[in-house]
Amino acid sequence: MTRPALLVMDLQIAMVGRVEDPHYVRRVAGAIDAARGAGIPVIYVVVGFRPGHPEVSPANKAFGAIPPPAFTTADPGAAIHPDVAPLADDVVITKRRVSAFTGSDLDVVLRATGVDRLVLTGIATSGVVLSTLRQAADLDYRLTVLADGCYDPDPEVHRVLTEKVFPRQADVVDVEDWISGPG
Questions:
Q1: Where does the Isochorismatase-like domain start and stop, copy by copy (predicted)?
Q2: What DSSP line would sit under 103-163, residue for residue?
Q3: All domains of the chain, ordered by start, with CATH?
Q4: Using one digit for the tens of pLDDT, what is the confidence trace for 125-147?
């Protein structure tokens, strides 16, 4: 039996503020509503650091350039965007790297709740979505990517990933198609 969960990854205010698609957040909100309506757990994944970023090596090109206090509890931009905010009983996972699994307890939470299929949304397609998909596939999760529930600042990179790379390890569908039969 398959037990899916919808992962809403990096939809934090600072990241959503860079999204150029005015309908993106609304589409993800629709996927969240559909998941809840179907009894599918919604799990939020956010990037977060302690004050002073002790988890970040200066050698890390991606995170080493992030100035403190970005993505700490003192940073209002680190909050999940209010249009897709979690409910009180939703799980919020804090990660320390690009993949939703790295530096987090995501795998523990998924296995404890019997989840074996992940439905991925997030910012950016070439960041958290790609890294999480690859690691989840290696951990034997079944995968679905909501293509238009993912966003990348480079439309060509998004296209190549969703049309050519992701289908090797995941079902790739649009939010509207998934809503018609979530799971």
A1: 5-177
A2: TSSHHHHHHHTT--EEEEEEE-IIIIIHHHHHHHHHTT-EEEEEEEEEE-SSHHHHHHIII
A3: 4-47+79-179 (3.40.50.850)
A4: 999 999 999 999 999 999 999 99
Helices (H) and strands (E) in the chain, counts: 6, 6
Peptide bond into 124 cis (omega under 30): yes
Q: What is the mean pLDDT of residues 74-92?
A: 96
The radius of gyration of the chain's CA atoms, rounded to the nearest angstrom, is 15
Query: Which strand (E) or helix (H) includes residue 53?
Result: none
Residue 109 identity: V
In this structure, the dihedral spanned by the alpha carbons of residues 104, 19, 148 and 23, taken in order and rounded to 10 degrees, is 130
Residues 6+ positions from 81 with CB-CB distance below 8 Å: 11, 12, 13, 16, 25
Rounded-to-integer distance, Cα 89 and Cα 62, Å: 32
Cβ-based neighbours of 57, under 8 Å, separated by 6 or more? 64
